[in-house]
């Protein structure tokens, strides 16, 4: 683990709603708490309707987690640009989020139900 963030199981069931559809639902979410940021819920890929996601060209780099790859969501109401991201090859200390995708709560609804 890093001294910049913690990763732990997120209690309960979490969902992602976009364009009127539930695109992810899991009881196996992780919550990443990073200094200076709101907590972020990471969903296992196995619990995401990956058919709704389309890879984006966008990439960002975090000095603590590594390079993030982004995804658009193809919703019934239209494309939601760069709505999710993942760390395909996270840095040491962030390995737990490999195979998970987080979603921008300002673009889609990320809720605990």
From TrEMBL:
Pfam families: NTP_transf_9. Coiled coil: none annotated. InterPro entries: DUF427 (IPR007361), DUF427_sf (IPR038694). Residues 16-105 form the DUF427 domain. Gene3D superfamilies: Domain of unknown function (DUF427) (2.170.150.40). PANTHER family: BLR5716 PROTEIN, DUF427 DOMAIN PROTEIN (AFU_ORTHOLOGUE AFUA_3G02220). This is DUF427 domain-containing protein.
